[in-house]
Design brief:
Strand content: under 5%
Structural class: mainly alpha
Distance between the termini: 58 Å
Radius of gyration: 20 Å
Largest sheet: none
Order of helices and strands: HHHHHH
Shape: globular
Helix content: over 70%
Number of helices: 6
Length: 161
């Protein structure tokens, strides 16, 4: 039993490690190599989805399988390309917010997925993704506002004494 758990953990680590290492490598690709990578990864995602008779990356997440790895790398490569080409004034604020709150965004998304699995179900993958992302970001924003409010009043109380 312990050996099975250790093997599963090592395999998960290796698969997520592949995504992390390849993500770092993609960052240094030229635009041309990045576009070729995006095309190849998209073709891989489409091919694997046809083979599996459907597209559901979350179904291949634990343990991470080829569809999930290709999908993750595709999104990373596409994000790098878009961030290089598109200059949006508010983008740095969004990136900073997500970076500073990634742990909490993960927590809120996991909580919603547990609630969904136990109490309700959304069969449309794209709709589910939008709801999870908006919920996670929204809850994180509300959490930050509550903490900022509480911190302000705590500091105000301690300064007046």
């Amino acid at each position: 039993m312990i050996q099975l758990a250790a093997e599963a953990t090592i395999l998960d680590f290796m698969a997520y490690g592949i995504i992390a290492v390849c993500s770092f490598l993609l960052y240094h690709f030229s635009d041309k190599k990045l576009l070729v990578s995006i095309g190849g990864l998209a073709a891989g995602v489409i091919g694997i989805s046809f083979y599996n008779r459907g597209f559901d990356p979350n179904g291949f997440k634990y343990p991470p399988e080829l569809l999930y790895i290709f999908w993750g790398l595709f999104l990373v490569a596409l994000s790098y390309y878009i961030l290089r080409k598109v200059r949006i004034v508010k983008l740095p604020g969004i990136v900073k917010f997500i970076s500073a709150n990634s742990l909490w965004i993960y927590f809120w998304h996991a909580m919603l997925l547990v609630l969904e699995r136990n109490y309700f179900s959304i069969n449309n993958w794209a709709l589910n993704w939008c709801i999870v992302v908006l919920y996670s970001l929204g809850m994180c924003h509300i959490q930050n506002a509550i903490l900022k409010y509480a911190n302000f009043h705590i500091n105000k109380t301690t300064q007046s004494t």
